[in-house]
Specification:
Number of helices: 11
Radius of gyration: 19 Å
Structural class: alpha/beta
Largest sheet: 8 strands, mixed
Distance between the termini: 46 Å
Amino acid sequence: MKITVVGAGAMGSLFGGLLAERGHEVTLVDVNAAHLQAIQSQGLRLHTDQSDRHIRALRACRPDEADGVPDLVLVFTKTLHTASALAGVAHLIGPETHVLSLQNGLGNVEVISQHAALGRILLGVTTWPADLVGPGHVHSHGQGVVRLMSADGRDRPFVATVAQALDEAGLACTVDAAVWTAIWEKVAFNAALNSICTATQCTVDQLGAIDDGPALAFCVVDEVLAVAQAQGVTVHADACKARVADAIGRHVGHKPSMLQDVLAGRRTEIESINGAVVAAAAAHDIPVPCTRTLLQIVRLVQARQAGTAPAGSVIH
């Protein structure tokens, strides 16, 4: 396939590099000049459990430099950048182009549908780890999976084609009609750990210092999954809480991405995680006090960091 990866950070570079190794025509699109230049001059350095190598059979460029109409656009930007990123590559999305989102949070399908019909949108979730350790240099150690489906829920042949391509690239991909379950459970996991760590500036394992840490995390999980059930999504609270507890027990020293964003002075994905849950909860008249309070705290942290108190940010 001809594949364009929009958002070539750690995850986008990992997926793009592995797909290029399998012979697909891959273009990485990003705005990180140093990262692009390193790939252009030396190839993508990809260090996995299997080997440490340079992948040269792929292109890296800015959005305005990308050309041609790909079969697949793979979106890996943060949710808050989805609209602007897709606007920047709108000239690449043809009438037969499919768009796959493996992003965190909620609301991505709604944004993508402004550029592609629902039947050409694929939605998925992945657990693969990846870290951008320097320009053109990505580490990925450990295992993961990808689960995806057509956003309209129909059994479409191209979905199986994409799943096969990702699977053959070593990304352990399956077509799964229960992707929304995985998405909401991941939202619950992130709403708990990301927002609590960002509000407290604790690492994940430090949440286990007192019983209040896990208790608060489990409260958020319960609230988020109650909203998911109101949306008609089947979820598994005990399994989700077990993953949260396992992370608190084992992710020693880990700073979630939302905390890393705050420490680096970047905007976070709080609106597409806790914010989206609070909005959906309001539509169903479901109280989510813990999730709402953490949203408000992280908003305050961001406003303080920006040196402003933005108007119109009151939650109704």
